[in-house]
Amino acid sequence: MNTSSMSTCDIKIWCTWALAITHEAGAYTEQKFNADKTGGEPVIPSPNLDTDLVMACDHLADVLIKAYKNPIKMQIDIARYSKLISPKNTGHNDEKEEKLLERCPPGHEGTKLVDKPATIIDVSGTIIAWYLLDALTETTQKEIRAATDLLGPSLEKSVKADGNWRYNQEWFKQGSENGHENLSDPEVSASLKGPSSENILKAIARPAAIASAALRVMHPQQYFAGLRALSHLGDKAVSKELPQMPETLQYWASVFNSLSIISNWETPNHRDHLSIPECFDILTTVGNYSNAQMSMPSLQLEFRYDSGCMIAFWEEL
Q1: Burial bucket for residue 312 (CB in 10 Å: 0-12, 13-18, 19+)
Q2: Across all residues in the chain, what is the average pLDDT?
Q3: How far apart (Å, rounded) are the C-alpha atoms in residues 71 and 60?
Q4: CA proximity to 268, closest of 171, 177, 140
Q5: Are 119 and 132 in contact (CB under 8 A)?
Q6: How many other CB atoms are found less than 10 A from the CB of residue 275?
Q7: DSSP state string for 14-57
Q8: Pairwise CA distance, residues 60 & 315, whole Å
Q9: Mean pLDDT of successive 10-residue stretches along the chain, which has 317 residues
Q10: Which residues neighbour 206 within 8 Å (Cβ) at sequence distance 6 or greater?
Q11: 211-260, pLDDT tens digit by residue?
């Protein structure tokens, strides 16, 4: 591995990593967002960022500003809400969800449709969700579709052969609560151990950088925590000679340590209990479709979910 590295406080990023470009894209997006928010001087992007990535970051920053300037205030107290949730609140049981809604009402009657970029704010002023309609440029969407084509063989193995896989709740059951007790050395996922892994990682590099740049603006603490974790993983990969890990990290461009593809037409309501409540999940959607909506029953909100949309939200919502 190239010993040249760049440092961000206690975080070391190898200059040969795709993550180094992601970090520069995130810094540029954050600076542009802050300049637009305060009326500051124009921001000049790093020469290391290619034209398509700069244009994607410019577009993302514009949508982030629109969302920031369109706050939707709710009566829900997210801290109290998080304390009331138990592993039994999977999102599948309508009766349990109704009781939870009664104890933590969002503050309006009925379900509201959100169809413009917005931030969702709880009673304490905490941003609990960012809704970024049209966050991805057409170029970025094409890159995601191309990457998905490369993942075709893996996707075919991951779905059921019966006709119900697109809305089968079996795919959304909670994992074992003891799943993280037996810790072992991290390893590269099976889908990235094949001969096409480098091509797959290169194909998703720009989309991964865009999602990471958005996170840097929306939740900087989580962004830098992810960056720090990958930095430590890089050191461990070298010191413990983890198989394929150094090579994979060279092309890994996301501050998240995993990416998932949801290819359902309809996804059952479900809640993530195995993540830190204060952190964001980020969903992006790409495809040739119309009239899609994403529902958040806990907030009694539905979001217009066009191709190119990005939504970030507290993981227990």
Answers
A1: buried
A2: 82
A3: 17
A4: 171
A5: no
A6: 13
A7: ETTSHHHHHHHHHHHHHHHHHHHHHT-PPPPPPTTS-HHHHHHH
A8: 22
A9: 49 83 96 94 94 96 97 88 70 71 78 95 93 96 88 67 48 43 69 80 93 96 93 87 86 88 70 70 90 88 95 82
A10: 52, 53, 56, 140, 143, 253
A11: 999 999 999 999 999 999 998 888 888 888 888 888 888 999 999 988 88
- Which two tokens mark 254? 């996301």
Task: Yes or no: say if 82 and 271 are a contact pair by the CB < 8 Å rule.
Answer: no
Phi, psi of 220 (to 5 degrees): -60, -35
Q: What are the b/e assignments for 88-124, b being 16+ CB within 10 Å?
A: ebbbbeeeebeebeeebebeeeeeeebeebbbbbbee
| Contact between residue 317 and residue 273 where contact means Cβ atoms under 8 Å apart | no
Q: SS3 of 242, please? A: coil
Could you give the CA distance from residue 255 to residue 268 in angstroms, rounded to a whole number? 27
Question: How many other CB atoms sit within 10 Å of the CB of residue 244?
Answer: 13
Amino acid found at 179 = G
